[in-house]
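Records of this kind hold a single protein each, on a pair of labelled lines. With that in mind, the following record should read easily:
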Amino acid sequence: MPPSRRPALPVRDLIDIQLEEYRALYGLASHRLSSLERRTPIVGAVLSGSVASLAVVPIALQSVILLGAPILLVWFVKSTINHAKSLEDVLRRIDAIECEVNERAGGQLLRFQSTHPSRGSAVGGRVSAGTIRSVVSVSLLLLYICAALLPDELPGTKAFYAYVAIISGWIAVEAYRLRRYAYSPSETRTE
């Protein structure tokens, strides 16, 4: 038996529903933007302070900081990239809603995201692009500092250099791969 079809909603009701989603998405976009903007100064300062304190902490704690900092930088970069991707998803959905509402209304009522000059030039927009550049730069600099601060005569120094090199390479690859990210809406099922 084929599924029964419900009567279509009036255009005004459809637009109202989409505008509610539009407002909710702008709230989410605002959250993502503020999360991105806070990341570099807060986490960068904590990690920089930890690495800078190496000269005054006991040797055992120095090892923990030197081994832990690269892993924290992986988390820092990965979570920043995830925020940028999420912001991109939100911006593209806002763009789609603007186009759908405009089509239903028969005019250009909503246009900010769908006609934004930087649309499509960077994943998550200019804020995300700037934040990603800052996070990658700070992370690579901190990794270099970690490697430079490790005394050459300690056992395992070459393994630590390899560890830092692998994480540096991962950060560079992830930043490069982000450029190819594209929002892909999932298809909704109507049954």
